[in-house]
Amino acid sequence: MPPVDTPVQQDLHALYRNHHGWLYGWLRRKLDNAADAADLAQDTFVRILGKPQPCEIREPRAFLVTVAGGLVANHWRRQALEQAYLEALAAQPEPVAPSLETRQLILATLEEISRCLDGLPARVREIFLLSQLDGLTYPQIAVRLGLSVNVVQKAMTRAVASCYRAMYA
């Protein structure tokens, strides 16, 4: 023998049966999205079922619009928050820490450069590193170290030649 519905359950079944299609159409026009409209139509009835004290509904469509309207407002607020979060993520700089593979390549390259510069005078190594690692121009290096541009050029020539010999000799 099937269970007998209470009068409240019968009223809720009738509300769903008589107004679900209309509510879905209203939500679809409001949201311009069939999937979201279907979800919010169901959520509207779930919200009504969750009320502790069912009330007498005199104007079912007005009642449904009131409940669904609150859900629509929450939906739009959530979408705005998600969009703001995605924009904030997009505005973040690229991660500062290089990957493990990149770090190993950098360390290997630095070790190779160190080997290339071994045996050179300290001033020549410093000029080379200021140029290649710090990105300073020859005139900037000359000013920083109190040298002439010609001395910086000769030191760079010597450092590059040493690297070339270490790599290709």
UniProtKB/TrEMBL annotation:
GO BP field: DNA-templated transcription initiation
InterPro entries to which the protein is assigned, alphabetical: RNA_pol_sigma-70-like (IPR039425), RNA_pol_sigma-70_dom (IPR014284), RNA_pol_sigma70_r2 (IPR007627), RNA_pol_sigma70_r4_t2 (IPR013249), RNA_pol_sigma_r2 (IPR013325), RNA_pol_sigma_r3/r4-like (IPR013324), WH-like_DNA-bd_sf (IPR036388)
SUPFAM superfamilies on file: Sigma2 domain of RNA polymerase sigma factors, Sigma3 and sigma4 domains of RNA polymerase sigma factors
Ranges of residues in domain RNA polymerase sigma factor 70 region 4 type: 111-163
Single GO MF annotation: DNA binding
Keywords: Sigma factor, Transcription, Transcription regulation
Record has Transcription regulation as a keyword: yes
Domain spans labelled RNA polymerase sigma-70 region: 15-80
Family statement drawn from the similarity comment of this UniProt entry: Belongs to the sigma-70 factor family. ECF subfamily.
UniProt-recorded name of the protein: RNA polymerase sigma-70 factor (ECF subfamily)
Organism listed in the record: Azoarcus indigens
